[in-house]
Design brief:
The complex is a heterodimer of chains A (486) and B (1006). Chain A has 486 residues and is mostly helical. Chain A has helices spanning 2-20, 42-53, 65-72, 87-90, 103-123, 130-158, 162-165, 191-208, 220-234, 237-250, 258-264, 294-298, 313-320, 365-378, 383-397, 408-418, 425-431, 446-449, 469-474; strands at 33-34, 77-79, 273-276, 309-311, 331-332, 343-344, 361-364, 436-437, 455-456. Chain A has a two-stranded antiparallel sheet with strand order 2-4. Chain A has a two-stranded antiparallel sheet with strand order 3-7. Chain A has a two-stranded antiparallel ribbon with strand order 5-6. With 1006 residues, chain B is mostly beta strands. The two termini of chain B are 32 Å apart. The longest helix of chain B is centred in the first third of the chain and has 18 residues, at 263-280. The chains are: A mainly alpha (486), B mainly beta (1006).
């Protein structure tokens, strides 16, 4: 009997020891890394730099929403039928209570948080060798540059154009450090303050950033071109001109030629791309095939495309007014869905393999030319200089066109042609106080029947997005944009 | 040890004799047919005959006979040389003397001060279900049970006394034969499944639902949502009994879900929508010449006429079938006073009513125990199960055939071309194709293999002191597959197919050692218990997904060309606990008890990981007091009360930590913070009190009344945090919530004679749920269609308030509900775009009452029983309104019959707006129009069985034979136009509806 008792007690004792031994309750994940130990080497910091960009490619940001908000809210792109194709963006039918369009706000702050975390961690990372110092500086520069881009986007999505009221309207909530939930409950700053933040970040970033090509990442030239764009939005024409011409003259990027132009859109890291974001089948963008990208919606020829977005009649008419314009080749009429409607094949996907996997091109050298033209025209450099930059882009598309003397309208038209599908048109019209007028292709002017004015300009309250009702319920300090009901 | 076992088989050599006698019922002296008579300590036994008479040879003169029969207490009578030995058996205790399985032990109902309901296997043994949860719907007061989906093998949702948690989970803890078990759905969620499916209902002896703190606090940090204790069948002493049970069944939809308009009505409605649109927008039809022409063209485009060269079919016939299910089980039970064994094997094959839905399950079960000596008992069990479940996603998924059928497959959608090939085109703008030829091109299944091994030893150190040590391993392997094979039109990037395999291994080791001390000193009875329990759960996950199959017909990713995703990781969740309890009663009148448990969990930070849980309870058995004992008609009368605490752990293993996650940016590693740290994260705490009254009168009426109040504090929520943190949510303890209610049950023995019995039972429960506080005063958390706000229920609806239709224009009208300067709500009627969401007072998913009632009837060898369940006073959110009652918005879709009531001309009074193509009024969208009264009454099951007379069986050596027919979900009464068994939060979104099943079965015992 004693034998049993002893054996049971000893088994019990063993199990007890095994379970009570120190650390039994200290478990750690193996598919994630505890934050305190996540950034101890320069390699870790490099991985965290990539982490800044990895989610910016999603549909709710540079994977579609930015482009839709720029082109579909403008007069370049429209839904093919009234029931599908981001109708709410086309009709400006968003409300504070609709749940669809607010993940852009969340995505922006997710990226800002990552920038802030990286900046904080880099401060504690000690490196000695000159090459390591340069790397560390580049990483820090990228964090500031990405943050500048995001704050600029927040300002133009949620705030009114700077020139409308000199930045007096509400802009972004400025968060520049890692904060707690309570510390993040700050009210919105003005657009002017947001722009100031953008410039401050860019000024910090520029001296730190490497000037070497770094596909998929910010380098000096990408930050410089972004700076040019922000000056343009702010109406600082000479500064815009100076920054843009620096990129044109000193950067290693070259314009795609007319012959290279169509294929250029399939390519990664070539010619004139200064900043693009990597999208690949391995980057987890489409887990179970449920992801529907903007490019997918545009792609009209394949049977598995969404085929719900098409170029507007007015854009087709504009581009086809010169049939030899290389960009007129973007318009195709062999739709498998609706042969009566043209579709848009500017973005055939990386390598032309799959239209879903398309690196969004965020900053290109062509934009620098157009910024330089506009900056010259409105600033002190003058119309002749402006015409040079403008005609470079015009003649790249069709070498046979006659030179023009640059005017604001001609630059706007060229921007509309050149930057179509890249998310500029609406913002370009708004920043200059111009208006958008829709000419729907099939006579279904459903934007109007859905309550959107046929023509609108920066006085229309819906040119800025609403702040999410749901977020405001738990974060009432976050001011709603005027005109939106709760 | 071997010697011990050998000694069991040794036959005692004493003088032997023949014994005869009769077995009768103590209550009325009637014979008990087929009672079992065993010579104690041997395997020798005989059944009595139909008149209770038995003859037993070779009985040792000084031996003992053991008499047993189902429903009676087993009785032992020493032979003492008598040749005639009559046994008078007492009916098994019902009511307060009934033995109950409770936390870490058993007790009698009469001495138990907690709130628990025990259901014995007899009450659900013939109900044709895959899992026991489905069989007890409506049977336990205060417990709501629904299925996540009507597909075979789906996950049940159990809510014991309301909602204890926001999103740490509201599921109870399952304890199987004393071991906290893995439960819930461990699949990737492509189809709902349940790890508890591994239990064959036929192997279950009893199910106890622990409801209050006195009952469940001993399970500490996991007991907040109640505990379900499952006791499996054990061997019974006596002649080995082999039982075979088999049944076959057929099933189909339990009701006509979402009646649709006819084809002709559909065309009328489509035309009307386009005519109205054209009338409103004359510019649109100018180029068509006339409005009539425009309507013709548009109708033909969106609701095209039937073409003579295409074949049209009734979609219901093409998509669904009457499903056949089969179930077979064989069990053997036997043993003697020292050793007992139960073993069973079972096979179930249940088909769904769409041909890709099925579940097949094989289970095997061995349970043995042995008394090694006066001091030591040992035992162990093996439960094995292998199951495969196939189906499709629920909700608005493109492979949910129910959703496709109701929303997309109109009668005008062609089925085949003339040549017999499938018509695989889609209407303009559509991304849905004929699903029938795709059934064989998609794989969506979940395979589970589970083994539960257990060994225990119990040491009786003295008569009063026992130590029991238990070690168990519960191993679950879950493999789910999702694949679109080559040729599947999946509208994604995966043109040449996609296959994803996910394996999850959950390995749980539980070890416990518990000491029990019981002592009776005269009228004083004391029971003490103390011990510890350690649990280690290891979770291993692997995933491999590849795309582009190399060959038409390839099904495995080995034959896919391109890598898509693949990884593996493991994590641990450990729990260490100290357990104790004590109870004392005096003279079977006054009972007090208490419990204390200390839990440490790895899911919380070092500062907050230890928690203390305790309870106190007491009861007073008035019927044992002298002043009531004299009242003849009161058989039992007791009041009881309890108070205590329990907790809920975060469901996330590492929710308190700040962590970095990693992915791929281009071809480079990318890392980013993926969780907002919360080092203060702590348990959800549940404070629970309960008072109850148990009455039995006239030896016929059993009445139980309870009132409970359970308050949860430090509610765990993946709470919305300001997006400016860079996160959308963080695991937080945010507030408190209360659930309170009354539970009443009444069971009546209406007829109890020797040949006939009729019993009826009814239970009714109320539930009041209220969020008491969130982290900040006045905070509101919108979780559409619900809102969480102090003073309102957890499932309070929050949306735009639909008024109805403007009789002049036919447009939908809403209350503005904008907040006016004085704080009140603007009640003017406006269009949807101008209406604000608001809390719809009184509209919640909490029912005013729910429960069930049942009847059971026996007459000689015939018996019948039925069980009903009901729920009323709650609202459900019907998400199908968006699709099926869209007032013409989308002309491709099917239309519910509700739309026939639409506004047509000025003066029409209706609540269905004018139909307009491309409707921008959005009357259907996210408003109180989706809220419908959810009241229902359902005949959950009906069984009729007949035991064949012994005269038929004697010759074939079958001791018992029974045939039965049973049905599930036979009748449903509801005002809803879809299946009313909606999950407890009230949200319904095209999950596959419940099915009605009819089975016929046979049970034979040898």
């Amino acid at each position: 009997m004693k034998r049993y008792i002893l054996s049971i007690l000893s088994i019990t004792g063993c199990i007890f020891l095994f379970s009570s031994c120190k650390g039994f309750l200290d478990t750690k994940p193996t598919d994630r890394v505890v934050a305190e130990t996540a950034m101890q080497t320069l390699y870790d910091a490099n991985v965290a730099v990539n982490g800044l960009y990895i989610d910016m490619k999603y549909q709710d940001y540079y994977g579609g929403t930015i482009q839709l908000l720029g082109d579909e809210r403008g007069d370049n792109i429209q839904p093919r039928v009234m029931s599908t194709g981001w109708v709410q963006i086309y009709t400006l039918g968003y409300e504070s209570e609709s749940s669809t369009y607010f993940s852009t706000w969340e995505r922006c702050y997710q990226t800002i948080m990552r920038c802030n975390t990286l900046i904080a961690n880099l401060a504690n990372l000690n490196v000695t060798s000159a090459s390591d110092v340069a790397k560390k500086n580049d990483y820090l520069g990228q964090a500031h540059a990405v943050r500048a881009l995001v704050y600029f986007d927040l300002a133009r999505l949620y705030g009114y154009p700077y020139l409308k009221d000199n930045g007096a309207s509400l802009g972004a909530v400025l968060i520049t450090e890692v904060t707690s939930p309570s510390g993040s409950r700050q009210p919105r700053s003005t657009v002017a303050q947001t722009y100031a933040r953008v410039f401050e970040d860019l000024n910090t970033a520029l001296p730190l950033l490497s000037k070497a090509k770094n596909t998929g990442h910010f380098n000096y030239w990408a930050a410089k071109l972004l700076q040019a764009r922000v000056y343009l939005y702010k109406g600082e024409w000479n500064n815009a001109y100076a920054a843009a011409t620096e990129v044109i003259k000193d950067s290693p990027y070259v314009l795609a030629t007319r012959d290279q132009y169509i294929n250029y859109w399939k390519e990664e890291g070539t010619l004139e791309t200064i900043l693009e974001f990597f999208v690949s089948p391995q980057s987890g963008i489409d887990d179970d095939g449920g992801y529907v990208s903007y490019w997918h919606n545009l792609w009209h020829g394949a049977p598995s495309s969404g085929a719900s977005l098409i170029p507007t009649v007015s854009w087709i008419n504009l581009i086809q007014s010169d049939p030899n314009d290389i960009r007129a080749q973007f318009v195709r009429t062999d739709s498998q869905y609706d042969p009566t409607k043209a579709w848009f094949n500017k973005f055939p996907g990386n390598g032309g393999v799959n239209f879903r996997y398309n690196n969004p091109k965020v900053l290109r050298l062509s934009e620098a030319y157009l910024i330089a033209a506009e900056g010259a025209l409105k600033g002190s450099a003058g119309a002749t200089v402006a015409s040079g930059y403008l005609n470079t882009i015009r003649k790249r598309a069709n070498p046979n066109v006659a030179d023009v003397v640059a005017t604001e309208d001609l630059i706007q038209i060229e921007r509309r042609k050149e930057l179509v599908g890249e998310g500029h048109r609406f913002f370009d019209q708004m920043r200059l106080g111009k208006s958008i007028t829709r000419l729907d292709s099939d006579g279904h002017n459903f934007a109007e029947s859905a309550g959107c004015p046929g023509t609108f300009d920066w006085s229309y309250f819906k040119i800025v997005l609403p702040i999410s009702h749901t977020e405001r319920k738990s974060y009432p300090e976050l001011q709603q944009n005027p005109g939106y009901t709760e | 040890m071997l010697l011990c076992i050998l000694s069991l088989s040794m036959v005692q050599l004493f003088a032997q004799m023949r014994v005869t006698g009769k077995v009768t019922d103590a209550a009325d002296g009637s014979a008990i047919p087929f009672a079992t008579v065993v010579i104690k300590g041997t395997a020798t036994s005989v059944p009595a005959d139909a008149n209770g008479l038995y003859v037993l040879n070779n009985v040792p003169e000084n031996g003992t006979l053991v008499f047993s029969s189902i429903g009676y207490e087993t009785q032992e009578i020493p032979v003492n040389g008598r040749a005639e030995l009559n046994a008078v058996l007492i009916q098994q205790a019902v009511g307060l003397e009934q033995i109950m399985v409770v936390a870490y032990g058993t007790t009698t109902k009469g001495s138990y001060s907690g709130s628990a309901t025990q259901l014995r296997q007899e009450s659900f043994k013939d109900v044709p279900v895959l899992t026991f949860e489905q069989a007890i719907v409506g049977a336990v007061p205060g417990v709501q049970i629904s299925q996540k989906s009507g597909q075979p093998g789906s996950l049940p949702e159990i809510r014991i006394r309301g909602f204890g948690s926001f999103n740490a989970g509201n599921e109870p803890l399952y304890v199987i034969d004393g071991v906290p078990a893995t439960s819930g759905d461990w699949s990737s969620g492509n189809i709902y499944t349940s790890s508890m499916n591994f239990l064959n209902p036929g192997d279950i002896e009893s199910v106890t639902v622990l409801k209050d703190a006195a009952a469940s606090s001993l399970y500490g940090s996991r007991a907040s949502n109640g505990v379900v204790i499952i006791t499996t069948k054990k061997g019974k002493a006596g002649r080995p009994v082999t039982t075979f049970k088999g049944n076959v069944g057929i099933s189909y939809f339990a009701m006509d879900n979402y009646p649709m308009v006819s084809e002709e009505e559909g065309e009328v409605l489509t035309r009307e929508a386009w005519r109205n649109y054209g009338t409103d927008n004359p510019a649109q039809w100018q180029k068509y010449g006339s409005l009539d022409n425009y309507v013709d063209v548009m109708t033909e485009k969106y609701y095209p006429s039937r073409k003579s060269n295409l074949i049209y079919e009734n979609w219901e016939d093409q998509l669904f079938r009457t499903a056949i299910s089969q179930n077979y089980e064989v069990s053997i039970s036997g043993g003697n006073e020292n050793s007992r064994v139960f073993a069973s094997v079972a096979y179930t094959d249940e088909n769904g009513i769409n041909r890709i839905q099925y579940m097949k399950r094989f289970t095997a079960n061995v349970n043995a125990e042995h008394k090694m000596s006066k001091y030591l008992r040992v035992g162990g069990s093996i439960q094995f199960s292998d199951q495969k479940q196939s189906g499709h996603q629920d909700g608005q998924a493109k492979d949910n055939v129910f959703y496709l059928w109701k929303v997309h497959l109109t009668p005008r959608w062609p089925f085949k071309y003339e040549d017999g090939s499938y018509w695989m085109e889609f209407y303009d703008g559509g991304t849905r194709v004929n699903p029938v030829p795709q059934f064989d091109l998609q794989i969506n299944d979940a395979t589970q293999m589970r083994v539960m091994l257990k060994g225990w030893a119990e040491l009786n150190i003295t008569e009063n002191l026992k130590i029991k040590s238990l070690l168990s391993k519960d191993y679950l392997k879950m493999h789910d597959r999702f694949a679109w094979l080559y040729g599947h039109i999946n509208f994604t990037a995966y043109g040449q197919g996609y296959a994803s395999d996910r394996h999850r291994f959950i390995d749980r080791i539980v070890s416990s050692t518990i000491a029990n001390y019981n002592k009776s000193l005269g009228k004083h009875n004391i029971a003490l218990m103390a011990g510890w329990e350690a649990e280690r759960e290891e979770f291993l996950y692997t995933r491999l997904a590849k795309i582009d199959f190399s060959n038409f017909g390839a099904t495995e990713s080995a034959l896919a060309s391109n890598f898509e995703s693949g990884y593996t990781y493991r994590s641990n969740s450990n729990l260490l606990s100290f357990i104790s309890s004590g109870s004392y009663d005096f003279n079977s009148k006054y009972y007090v008890s208490g419990s204390y448990r200390r839990d440490g969990s790895s899911r919380l930070g070092p500062e907050t990981r230890w928690g203390d849980f305790w309870s106190v309870a007491g009861s007073w058995r008035l019927s044992n007091e002298e002043f009531i004992k004299g009242i003849k008609w009161i058989n039992d009368l007791r009041i009881r009360g309890s108070y205590g605490t329990s907790g809920t752990l975060p469901s996330s293993y590492f929710g308190y930590m700040a962590v970095f996650s990693y992915g791929l940016y281009g071809t480079q590693a990318a890392g980013y913070p993926s969780n907002l740290a919360n080092s203060d994260l702590t348990w959800e705490k549940n404070r629970n009190w309960n008072i109850g009254l148990d009455v039995r009168v006239f030896d016929r009426f059993d009445f139980v009344a309870e009132y409970y109040n359970r308050t949860t504090e430090d509610l765990l929520l993946n709470a919305t945090v300001p997006s400016t943190t860079g996160f959308t949510s963080a695991l937080t303890n945010i507030g408190s919530m209360v659930n309170k209610g009354v539970e009443l049950s009444l069971n009546v023995d209406i007829i109890k004679t020797r040949d006939m019995s009729l019993k009826a039972g009814i239970n009714w429960a109320t539930l009041k749920n209220e969020v008491l506080a969130l982290s900040e005063e006045g905070e509101q958390i919108v979780s559409r269609p619900h809102i969480w706000k102090a003073g309102y229920s957890y499932v309070q609806y929050y949306t735009r308030e639909y008024y109805g239709v403007d009789p002049e224009t036919g447009n939908p009208l809403y209350y503005s509900n904008a907040i006016l300067p004085d704080g009140s709500r603007d009640r003017t009627l406006v269009s949807r775009a101008k209406a604000s969401s608001t809390i719809l007072e009184g509209m919640t998913a909490i029912p005013k009452g729910f429960g069930g009632f049942n009847f059971s009837f026996t007459y000689k060898s015939l018996s019948a029983s039925m069980a009903w369940s009901y729920k009323y006073g709650h609202y459900v959110w019907d998400n199908a309104v968006d699709d099926l009652e869209d007032d013409g918005y989308n002309s491709y879709k099917n239309t519910s019959k509700e739309q026939l009531r639409r506004w047509q001309k000025p003066g029409d009074i209706t609540d269905v707006p004018r139909r307009v193509a491309g409707n921008n009024q959005g009357g259907y969208y996210d408003s109180s129009r989706a809220l419908k009264k959810g009241d229902y009454l359902r005949l959950k099951n009906l069984t009729i069985s007949w035991t064949l007379p012994q005269t038929l069986l004697g010759k074939v050596k079958i001791s018992n034979a029974r045939i039965y027919v049973a049905g599930n979900n036979l009748l449903t009464f509801t005002g809803l136009n879809f299946d009313p068994e909606v999950q407890a939060n009230g949200y319904y979104n095209f999950t596959f509806p419940a099915v009605r099943t009819l089975t016929i079965g046979l049970e034979l015992s040898l």
